[in-house]
Amino acid sequence: MDILKYFDITHKKHLVLNPMSQVKLDGLFSLFKLKPGSKVLDIACGKGEPLIRLAELYNISGIGVDISPYFIKDCEKKKNERVPGSDIKLLEMDGAKYAPKINELFDLTMCIGASFVYNGFIETIKALKKMTKPNGLIIIGEPYWLKEPDDEYLKMSEFKKEVFNSHFKNIDVGEKEGLNCIYTLVSNHDDWDYYETLQWWSVNDYITTNPDDPDNSELLSKTKKAKIEYLLYGRNTIGWAIYVFKR
Ligand SMILES: C[S@@+](CC[C@H](N)C(=O)[O-])C[C@H]1O[C@@H](n2cnc3c(N)ncnc32)[C@H](O)[C@@H]1O
Questions:
Q1: Which residues have C-beta atoms less than 6 Å from ligand 1?
Q2: Count: domains in the chain
Q3: Of 51, 101, 211, 215, whose CB is crowded by the most CB atoms within 10 A?
Q4: In terms of residue numbers, what domain contains 81?
Q5: How confident is the model over 13-55, as pLDDT tens digits?
């Protein structure tokens, strides 16, 4: 099935498409103290919750980029409902192809839960650094290994061990790129459980209301695989943090 349709269905009930609680995220946003008109870029903005929240709090000028037509539609709806007059542009495109106008730099850039867009964490840091003003903020949401992953888990999930770092290494990589990590926001089991298990619920609702969708059997088998991987291994093996770096 189309992967973007799959993500739309599995994340139907989510506002934030990553394993961080909305309350903790709001706490982080309140620390930013951005000036009105500050320029913010969100690569792989999902349903736009971070961008719209920042527009509500600080009247920022923002650009959100996401490849999913489903999520960009959600963003547009959210913008019209919550910050209709705001200077927020939403672009449906591959984030890796997004290039700012010549000499345009942002006060804050983010890529939360999507470093695959740039083929990994370090490349994400490099890409965002180029688009961020000196002293600006770079926010990256990234998994990390809580412990050495079992071979069985790597086999089952088809993850390569190198795909993630330790928490320390995520910070170290950014600092070796010349950034200063000034804050981290880390998810706990509650945050992860909310993110993962709400997907089971959304899939259940979808199949109930769309019993004739030919994609249902694939949807069910993918969801079952993800459920088993999370319960047997992921829950105790992968952590999640949002890293705040200063350029
Ligand atoms: C885990 S979600 C995170 C979304 C959002 N940053 C958040 O935290 O709510 C990953 C997002 O990456 C988007 N995505 C996947 N590939 C992309 C690409 N090549 N360019 C832009 N967005 C992409 C997906 O559509 C999805 O919205």
A1: 7, 16-18, 44-46, 49, 65-68, 71, 94-96, 112-114, 117, 141
A2: 1
A3: 51
A4: 14-150+158-187+238-246
A5: 999 999 999 999 999 999 999 999 999 999 999 999 999 999 9
Structure tokens, 35? 């000036």
Q: Which long-range contacts (CB under 8 A, 24 or more apart) does 66-72 make?
A: 66/90, 66/91, 66/92, 66/95, 67/4, 67/92, 67/93, 67/94, 67/95, 68/4, 68/7, 68/8, 68/92, 69/4, 70/4, 70/5, 70/7, 70/8, 71/7, 71/8, 71/17, 71/45, 71/46, 71/47
| CATH, residue 19 | 3.40.50.150
pTM comes to 0.95
Q: What is the pLDDT of residues 134-183, one digit of tens each?
A: 999 999 999 999 999 999 999 999 999 999 999 999 999 999 999 999 99
